[in-house]
Design a protein that fits this description.
heterodimer, A: alpha/beta, Rossmann fold, five-stranded mixed sheet, four-stranded mixed sheet, 12 strands, globular, B: alpha/beta, five-stranded parallel sheet, two-stranded antiparallel sheet, 13 helices, 43% helix, 9% strand
Chain lengths: 321, 367
């Protein structure tokens, strides 16, 4: 099963198990979504629960919030993360704050699904990785899976979560990674990282599509005699401090990978966290491998995005410090 | 505009009916009147408390008491109301206590939103009065989404949502109206057109001949009603609510009124509101009109009115005294309700702040 098929399986499982779950967005109904993430749901659950909405992200998020207030479990799809900004105010000022500002009287548990990230020749507006905007907003949880198994388990856990979740799907690997995925209902816990590969010399931390870049780098490093531990964060907010701390304590060296622009990126937070807690355990300053502080490019996207070679370069740097 | 019909009215300037009076019991009429008077008196006291530095802000609805109370009265208790910040009367009508509203304005530990919002940003789930946001129009799509949910669950619930004339320029207004039209949701929209968005008059807000007419573009009806005539507002709202309840879809009601006070305690309307407008509109004060009507219909004597006002003032005074003596919220309350459970990073941040103030008991903040 591919990652996007795992999204579909997760949605289908959730809708089958829980009649509060509704899906809404642009082209999610009859067409099954432009990436086919909602394929078949319209036929299975009907137009009341699989809703082709007017073309307005603020309306998709805003009405989904109304549904959540009323007790449904909406799963709005934003076709590309790059298109989410008309709904940004609804997410940041409303969805994220309603529990707090009403003293817990009103809540808006919902899962905002959206494909994110580059590597598909999508230019400025089909490639962005703007998770940091949302990570900066208290009240939201941020989940980014990297494998089909985690995608389904995290999606199901997100739908049952009492808090709103931004569920960012790495579209570059929508069909690139295949796994056998467990049938039926299961949840993968939000807030837990996964050690994707064990190692001793250096820790590489990544999430989403960059996890696979990190794993390729680790494979090459091993051939060169360097043992790399790779951690898949899976949840950015709240992140798994214990797994990160334990790994970096063990290796003494860390490389952090994100495809988002560097300044204000989420890995800056992880770097600060590790330096604040583990400065005496560190053998070298932590390095970041990131996108550039530019709009996302078209022709030069391979140069813009972190690659296994760039990760290896940073691994060499922390090892030779 | 020459072609624009005058808004619907029931009462003339003396509060006498010049149209069919809606069928409302004496109790219902007096409840509406009490909600309007309470809103006015809370407004007067709230502005004074702000001037005295006892609370930090107040946003009132002086002159608009009829335009939202008439609307709120047409909804059932089980209907959901999505307010903005200029419709306190609906909270009163639905049963919010004066004491809890005063605690909210003071932001005490007894405020059930723990001092997390500015004054007047109430939230009363037990009476289906939704939480108020400062950014404009954001509640309108929520009302449409909730109505959609009620519709597919087959619940007998209509959603009512209120906002001002300035709010109709925001994207969320148009988005919500469009979704409501397409989905045919049981939603009634109330635009309290008080002629001003802080200092910007309606002619700089829209080139439409009215606000009501905007509904036409979204495929449903808009009606324009005298916002100072609580009976006219009630009548138009009841028709819209019944239509929504019976599957007839949404309606936009424009209540034509006038903001008789500042935008908020932070505003000085003398800079831009023409004095002659205030004088003209004060001849059609919504509470005076309704009082004259109730008096003429033998529902309320002058002494009963006097006693009502004294009782409300006493309740406000009791609320103020209670709030003045209340504790502030705790540091722990800062990190609660961000998420369903307090996550590790917020726990650490609160504990660190408590340690800081614990080591400095002479500083504020060590609640």
């Amino acid at each position: 099963m591919t990652l996007v098929e795992a999204v579909n399986d997760g949605l289908n499982t959730a809708m089958h198990e829980d009649d509060r779950v509704v899906v809404l967005g642009e082209d999610v109904g009859v067409n099954g979504g432009v990436f086919r993430a909602t394929d078949g749901l319209y036929d299975a659950y009907g137009e009341e629960r699989v809703i082709d909405t007017p073309l307005a992200e603020a309306g998709i998020i805003g009405t989904a919030m109304g549904m959540a207030l009323y007790g449904l479990r909406p799963v709005p799809e934003i076709q590309f993360l790059d298109f989410i900004y008309p709904g940004f105010d609804q997410i940041v000022n409303e969805v994220a704050k309603i529990r707090y500002r009403s003293g817990g009287q009103y809540t808006a548990p919902m899962v905002i699904r959206t494909p994110y990230g580059g590597g598909i020749r999508g230019g400025h507006y089909h490639s962005q990785s703007s998770e940091a905007y949302f990570a900066h907003t208290p009240g939201l949880k941020i989940v980014i899976p990297s494998t089909p198994t985690d995608t389904k388990g995290l999606l199901l856990a997100s739908i049952q979560d009492e808090d709103p979740v931004m569920f960012l799907e790495p579209k570059r690997v929508y069909r690139a990674v295949k796994e056998d995925v467990e049938e039926g209902y299961y949840e993968t816990e939000i807030g837990e990282a996964r050690i994707a590969r064990e190692g001793d010399d250096v820790t590489v931390i990544a999430y989403g599509a960059m996890l696979h870049v990190a794993l390729q780098a680790a494979q090459t490093a091993e051939e060169e005699g360097v043992s790399v531990e790779v951690i898949d964060m899976r949840t950015l907010v709240p992140f798994d401090k214990d797994t990160l701390e334990a790994s970096v304590k063990k290796t003494g060296r860390a490389v952090l990978v994100q495809e988002a622009p560097r300044t204000g990126g989420f890995m800056g937070e992880i770097s600060a966290f590790l330096h604040e807690r583990l400065i005496l355990n560190l053998e070298a300053p932590i390095q970041r491998v990131t996108g550039l502080d530019t709009p996302f490019p078209y022709t030069l996207e391979e140069e813009y995005l972190p690659t296994p070679t760039r990760v290896l370069d940073a691994v060499d740097e922390v090892l030779s410090y | 505009m020459a072609t624009l019909e005058p808004p619907k009215t029931i009462m003339n300037d003396d509060g006498q009916p010049n149209g069919e009076v809606p069928d409302l019991s004496q109790d219902a009429l007096l409840d509406m009147y009490e909600a309007m008077v309470t809103t006015r008196l809370l407004n007067e006291r709230g502005m004074k408390l702000q001037r005295q530095g006892r609370i930090h802000f107040y946003v009132g609805s002086m002159g608009q008491e009829a335009s939202h109370v008439g609307f709120g009265a047409a909804l059932k208790e089980t209907d959901w109301y999505f307010p903005h910040y200029r419709d306190t009367g609906v909270a009163v009508l639905r049963g919010a206590s004066i004491e809890e509203m005063v605690h909210q304005c003071y932001g005490t530990a007894e405020d059930h939103i723990q001092g997390r919002q500015m004054p007047n940003h109430y939230s009363f789930k037990d009476i289906n009065f939704y939480s108020i946001s400062s950014p404009l129009s954001t509640q309108i799509p929520h009302a449409v989404g909730a109505a959609y949910a009620a519709q597919i669950k087959d619940d007998d619930v209509v959603t009512g949502v209120a906002f001002g004339d300035g709010s109709t320029s925001e994207g969320d207004f148009h988005v919500a109206m469009n979704f409501a039209g397409v989905w045919n949701t049981p939603t009634v929209f109330l635009c309290q057109n008080n002629q001003w968005a802080i200092s910007v008059p309606t002619e700089k807000q829209t080139a439409s001949e009215s606000f009501a007419i905007k509904a036409k573009a979204y495929g449903f009806d808009g009606v324009r009603v005298d916002g100072n005539d609580v009976l006219a507002l009630y009548q138009a709202s009841r028709e819209a609510v019944e239509k929504a309840r019976n599957g007839g879809g949404p309606t936009l009601i424009e209540a034509v009124t006038y903001r008789m006070g500042p935008h908020s305690s932070s505003d000085d309307p003398d800079r831009y509101v023409p004095q002659e407008d205030l004088e003209a509109w004060s001849n059609r004060d919504p509470i005076d009109l309704f009082q004259a009507f109730l008096h003429e219909q033998n529902h309320l004597t002058e002494s009963e009115d006097e006693a009502l006002r004294e009782r409300i003032k006493d309740e406000i005074q009791a609320g103020v005294e209670s709030a003045e003596n209340a504790e502030g919220p705790t540091i722990d309350s800062l990190v609660e309700d961000v998420y369903a459970q307090v996550p590790w990073h917020l726990r650490e941040q609160a504990d660190d702040l408590k340690r800081f103030y614990g080591e400095r008991p002479d500083m504020d903040g060590g609640h």
